[in-house]
């Protein structure tokens, strides 16, 4: 009897040890399988990378899977304990499982707590926020770049636990200029420093941080002209701050001989002689071939009668394209910056919509929303091919299916033409109009390219 009892006891312990081994092997395989989905072997060898992944991603999808797994383990152990509760021979086995159950339940509780506190990675990286904020010396700038947590301590309707205000990456290389821009008294009148702000934007510090000072207005601001007058009349000089410009009046800018505005748009403020005929009359035809790079608005609108309603003019100008399109019941937003002259003020005072935007910034429009994008004499032969790619694909993003891209008098050196044309062809748009003619004012070394291109549907 004694020998049979010993054999029974030995057999029971072998069964317990086998179960423990199987359970441990299962847990190990589950861990390896989970990690193999998320990390490569090299990333596991790199301890810093592995630790960062645990800190930044431990509360996401893997946490949910771990919760489900622990629930299954707990359920199976509970069932096993109920099946063996009346057997005195397995009392130690039950005690062991009770200990294991307590450990697993503690793991489950910690995972569940982490899932409840699921937040943006930056809010879990206080050290990173401190380093970013301490890079700058101006307190107002430090306050701006820090994460602003929601007061109720939970996610808002957008699914965020806080607000993460951003600045352009180039702001860090323009530290002194940005600190000068943000050095003000809260609630006081801002300095007349728009030129500094524009310099930051053009050099990549875009977007700029918001400020808590009151914008400075012109000293003698007067009411704008009524809409029936403002479209083709020079605005009142009192409605612009002229301190940062060489010209101090619109009459100076409109003078043909001054050349004190942006050199590509020196005549843009001459509304009567230069601006009025544009896109309504063919004025730049080549005498030799009788061809022109200009298209008339009427013939472009005839491509899709009644379908063009809203669009963007990405050019340097005073809003004349938008003014003419308005006459055809098409609303155009004019994107421009103040390069040497008050272009944005001029557009607004004409009763049109100015969008103060550099070429560096992603367009603030949602996908597939605009009917037309127009550009003229701005993205020309100076632009880098890679930058042009990013710009064109952003225009493609905001154009709706069937929308029109109007490339208006793009000019470049003859030897660069094929490379630039290849960038436009990459979009695979339908050619509605397409013309290439010589540009006669640069020793016949440059050419004009104009096109009307239609975005395909792409329903995939």
From TrEMBL:
SUPFAM superfamilies named in the record: S-adenosyl-L-methionine-dependent methyltransferases
Keyword annotations: Membrane, Transmembrane, Transmembrane helix
tRNA-binding in keyword set: no
Parts of the chain that traverse the membrane: 12-35
Superkingdom in the source lineage: Eukaryota
Name this protein carries in UniProt: S-adenosyl-L-methionine-dependent methyltransferase
Source organism of this protein record: Kingdonia uniflora
Source organism phylogeny: Eukaryota, Viridiplantae, Streptophyta, Embryophyta, Tracheophyta
